[in-house]
Write a structure and sequence with these properties.
It is built from 6 helices and 3 strands. It is mostly helical. Strand 2 (235-236) and strand 3 (243-245) form a beta hairpin.
């Protein structure tokens, strides 16, 4: 059994490895194209959701502040009622004072309660002004929020439409790519993914185009081109690090 396993491993040639890698590259490139088709929509949807959440939080804060102002107005009105009642009581007591000292004390109390009323009235005006300003802010914020929600519905609809059109195709490609990855030795697959991650266009394996690397388009020496065509070893571009294969293996007619 061990011998059969060893012989099976020996049968996987460099050409087989390169061919499998190129097939994998083709699949993941098609998946990338599907993602490109979606464009910036997923990010736009996420940004809109974040913005809406922020606007809703701000709206809730404004509404809480308005309630606090309304509570403050009620408290100040109660204080005015109390102070007015005290003034009336102190004024009635002025008629029965026995000396100047009592008169002065009552007069000071009446004056103090008058100042308390003025202070409460000022607080009420400030709270009402702040409430009016906040209500204007809420109206503008609500209008903006409604607009962003409408934008979100539209963007989500566009995204869902694209996803529904491409979902089945993408799932098939991912399933094929997953199965193909199992046939590629782990070290080579890791290298492929590392190169692909670092490549601007996502290409980890490219074929020779007009005597140059199909990834960075730097010229390839004739001897190296010959080595690539022989398919005896895995060769990478000395400039960009991509794995290179000959056009024939890629199914391209020169």
């Amino acid at each position: 059994m061990a011998t059969d396993k060893q012989s099976a491993e020996k049968e996987i040639t460099v050409e087989d490895k390169l061919s499998a890698l190129y097939q994998l590259q083709t699949m993941v490139t098609d998946i990338d194209k599907i993602k490109t088709l979606r464009g910036e929509l997923p990010l736009e949807v996420q940004d809109l959701e974040d913005e809406i959440a922020g606007l809703e939080t701000r709206l809730q804060n404004y509404q809480t502040e308005i309630k606090e102002y309304e509570t403050s107005v009620v408290e100040q009105r109660n204080k005015i009622t109390e102070s007015t009642a005290l003034i009336e009581r102190y004024k009635s007591q002025l008629d029965n004072v026995r000396n100047n000292r009592e008169f002065d004390n009552l007069s000071k109390e009446i004056e103090f309660q008058g100042l308390e009323i003025e202070f409460s009235e000022k607080k009420i005006r400030e709270a009402n002004d702040a409430t009016g300003y906040k209500k204007e802010e809420i109206a503008q914020l609500t209008e903006r929020l409604d607009g962003r929600k409408a934008d979100l519905v539209q963007k989500k609809s566009e995204l869902e439409e694209i996803i529904s059109e491409t979902k089945q195709e993408e799932e098939k490609l991912r399933e094929k790519a997953k199965k193909l990855e199992l046939s590629i030795e782990p070290r080579l697959l890791t290298a492929f993914k590392r190169i692909r991650k670092g490549a601007r266009n996502g290409l980890a394996i490219v074929y020779i185009q007009r005597d140059a690397c199909g990834g960075c388009f730097n010229k390839i020496p004739p001897q190296k081109q010959m080595d690539i065509k022989l398919r005896k070893k895995i060769i990478v571009c000395e400039y960009c690090g991509r794995i290179m294969i000959d056009p024939e293996l890629a199914g391209i007619e020169e």
